[in-house]
Amino acid sequence: MTTSVLPPNATPLMRAIAAVNARLGELPVPLDSLKDPDAIPLNLLPWLAWELGVLTWSNDWPERIRRARVKAAIPIAMRAGTVGAVRRAVQSFGGNIALREWFQMDPPGKPHTFELTLTVAAQDGNPPTAAYIEDILREVDRAKALRSHYTFTQGISASATVGMVAGAQAVLYRRIAITDDLSNVLPRYSDGSPASDLARDAQNNGEADTVAALDALNATVTAVMPANSWSA
After folding, report:
1. Highest taxon of the source (predicted)?
2. Structural domains in the chain (count)
3. For the sheet containing 95-101, what is the strand order?
4. What pLDDT, in 10s, does the model give residues 86-126?
5. Last residue of a domain, one of 154, 172, 200
6. Which residue of 12, 182, 189, 196 has the lowest C-beta tally within 10 Å?
């Protein structure tokens, strides 16, 4: 019994095409893994990202970040325009934020504005690049409410994988545990602005020299402006 629906006068070419197409149904198509960001082959991951509406993408990101971006796509879309969407977008890049909306400021800020402090850990031992930070902020812009505007501050990350930071944390700052308020964790200048540039320099320099420099700097800050001391 044949399953062909070709007419009796079908040409050999038509019958050959029908025979080839009939075999396509026998090819295994593991849809369960092809739709799973954790299981899909890495070379196919960009296609799943495109399907789920991930607009910011780079093959230079670590694999775990790319998979996390795809996993977060639907939860972010479901919460678009909310603080939750902004947090989830940043977390998918391996970062954390402290976010304060205008009505949480003292005195209250301009309506529909917020302050954003972003902290991103090193990726595979390398500090985040300016391009990587731009990718994160691009997703923040997409996730936030359209009417909202924000000021951005880049915080510091005291990852224990960096020897200097682990050794200097008792001198300069507590090891950062991300919460909704980083104001008591980040070192700050006398005007209240975060001293993230000094912390970044410390993270990039050698351990012994930097720790010694931080000791001297902390002693100076404590003596000159004790209210702004960075000691933990």
Report:
1. Bacteria
2. 2
3. 95-101, 113-120, 149-154
4. 999 999 999 988 899 999 998 999 999 999 988 888 777 77
5. 154
6. 12
Nearest of 103, 104, 99 to residue 115 by alpha carbon: 99
Q: What's the one-letter identity of residue 2? A: T
Same domain? For 175 and 144 the reply is no
Q: Is the CB of residue 120 less than 8 Å from the CB of residue 94?
A: yes
Question: How high is the mean pLDDT of the chain?
Answer: 75
Per-residue pLDDT at 163: 33
Q: Are residue 97 and residue 195 in the same domain, yes or no? A: no
Token pair 């972003």: residue: 118
In this structure, is residue 19 part of a structural domain?
Answer: no
Q: What is the mean pLDDT of residues 129-136?
A: 90
**By C-alpha distance, which of 42, 46, 71 is closest to 56?**
46
User: Residue 188 gets which letter from DSSP?
Assistant: B
Specify whether 231 is located in the same domain as 173: yes
Residue 222's domain comprises: 159-232
Check if the beta carbon of residue 222 is closer than 8 Å to that of residue 180. no
Asked if residues 37 and 51 have their Cβ atoms less than 8 Å apart, the reply is no
State how far the Cα of 153 lies from the Cα of 170, in Å rounded to an integer: 23
